[in-house]
Amino acid sequence: MILELQPAKLKGTVEAIASKSDAHRALICAAFADAPCSLKISTTSKDIEATAEVLEAFGADIEQTDNLYKVSPSKAKTLKCTADCNESGSTLRFLLPVAAAVGGEVLFTGQGRLPNRPMTELCRTLQENGISFKQHSENFLPLTLSGRLTGRDFLLPGNVSSQYISGLLFASTIANGGTIRLSSKLESASYVEITRHVLEKFGVKTEAAADSYTVPANQKLVSPGFYAVEGDWSCSAFWLCAEFMGSEVSVSNLDMNSPQGDKAAVEILKLFESSIECSVDCSDIPDLVPPLAVAACARKSTTHFVNAARLRLKESDRIESVANLIKNLGGKIETTEDSITIFGNGSLKGGKISSQNDHRIVMAAAIASTISEEPVTIDGAEAVQKSYPSFFQDFNKLGGTFNVISLR
Q: What is the domain range of residue 181?
């Protein structure tokens, strides 16, 4: 789908969509709890649906009525199924270790860029604990997992993906305990804290040390009966950045006490209010870079985004896709292997960009239109379905205007 967005400021209040991070984790805990649980997930997305569908393949019964998901836990003693993760990295990285803990034979498949995203370290530590894998092509997916965990001691580098640690925390819970040891500094640590927070809501205590996480044995997931998924800071950051850039936008349903690390957007945007050159460490907040990069264009100063190498492993190579976005809209940007530097002059010219099938690039381009002199055209705007299907409805409610050029 190709959309042409007209330059205009936004005005109004938007309710934060349900946190994708919280929803994934709550669905997994509910699917392996001791009793049914009702989850209130105010908005859904392709990624959330992917996790729900794989959990159903694992034997859970999930009934959705409006924004309520009634989850009856899986009673499967072993697995024999196909797990289609669509384009969701969270679904794959969380549920591959879960399948290893339950045991059996599971064919994992995926779409888009997911079959090429890195999984080597996670597979290695699972193999060291009794799991076998069979790849069916040159890509990582499709992949068949066989066996059941025979050990509960996992070693991982901390700078690859925090999702590996989260997946192993779930697996350790199901497998009656385990320890994840880190051989290097953990990046995106706040996402592991979200996992620990949700596990605690379902009755499981975890322990964190400087270089390890442990799930003590003899615990089980206990259904709280009802669980309300909180608002999403990652997607709300686009509206917060629009507000920084001169729109009169506010976001409701956000919790400042949330374990979500992307609430850091609030403090970073306060930093951006200064006219001095500044630097943003991206190691814990990779998903904030697309909206913050656009916000940096609204500054009349230089902004450096550092420790950003992991952006190259997202739905697109986000260092390159952010660079293309800013350049195509008339901004000045320089990149290295692990950094982005933006030379802001207060506005953008406008132009045409490709989404690279990346939902966050679409939303970044949309808010870029609020400081553009000419229209912004987005090729591949349908990518927002991955995390925020109602994004353009909300954009329109806030006064944003656009024309559908093509539905292809």
A: 20-228
Q: Which of 305, 297, 276, 303 is nearest to 344 (CA)?
A: 297
CATH of the domain at 273: 3.65.10.10
175 with 265, same domain: the answer is no
Q: What angle do CA 81, 84, 88 make, to 5 degrees?
A: 140
Same domain? For 8 and 32 the reply is no
Task: Give φ, ψ of 275 to 5 degrees.
Answer: -90, 5
269 in Cβ contact with 295 (< 8 Å): yes
pLDDT values of the chain reduced to their tens digit, one per residue, 408 residues: 999 999 999 999 999 999 999 999 999 999 999 999 999 999 999 999 999 999 999 999 999 999 999 999 999 999 999 999 999 999 999 999 999 999 999 999 999 989 988 799 999 999 999 999 999 988 899 999 999 999 999 999 988 889 999 999 999 999 999 999 999 988 889 999 999 999 999 999 999 999 999 999 999 999 999 999 999 999 999 999 999 999 999 999 999 999 999 999 999 999 999 989 999 999 889 999 999 999 999 999 999 999 988 888 778 889 999 999 999 999 999 999 999 999 999 999 999 999 999 999 999 999 999 999 999 999 999 999 989 999 999 999 999 999 999 876
- Which member of 47, 232, 262, 287 is catalytic? 287
| Pairing verdict, β 226-228 and 79-84 | unpaired
State the helix-helix crossing angle for 162-174 and 120-127, rounded to 10 degrees.
Answer: 30
Does 79 lie in the same domain as 224? yes
Q: Are 216 and 204 in contact (CB under 8 A)?
A: no
89 lies in the same domain as 178: yes
Whether residue 317 is found in the same domain as residue 348: yes
Tell whether 213 and 261 lie within a shared domain: no
Q: Could you give the number of structural domains in the chain?
A: 2
Q: Does the annotation count 287 as an active-site position?
A: yes
What 3-state DSSP class applies to 400? Answer: coil
